[in-house]
Amino acid sequence: MHPKRSKISGPLLALALLTSPAIASSQSISDDSSSSRRAGAYAPDNSGKNARDRSRDAVTPLTQSNNQSDIEITRKIRRALMQDKSLSTTARNVKVVTVGGTVILRGPVKSEHEKAAIADKALQIAGSGHVNDQLEIAGR
Fold first, then answer.
1. Are 21 and 83 found together in one domain?
2. Are residue 24 and residue 53 in the same domain, yes or no?
3. The pTM is what?
4. Which of the chain's ends, N or C, has fewer CB atoms near its CB within 10 Å?
């Protein structure tokens, strides 16, 4: 004998299937955020930086020129940073943007030494007077 199956109408079944993932994902999101709070893990307050980056004049990776020589300068600097194993991961991931032959360096680094090393690499590749160093030492 086969157990008797109950029938669920098409629209009711569709509604149940559509809402299940939403309910499950909202539950997992709230679980994740509450466990983060319990662990004392809070995101850093980047409000000032976020406001600065919303400015029309803010240099972001989207500002990068499509000019072939600008792209080549950025590529060479990025490669030099990635090959320097003395730099922290944070330092190797700074923003490098080249517009009109001028290189803009932005982002956090861990020390004055890293800041100088990155600027030196950019100067060697782009040339004197073509580097705008906006790097920030983390924690300052």
1. no
2. no
3. 0.59
4. N
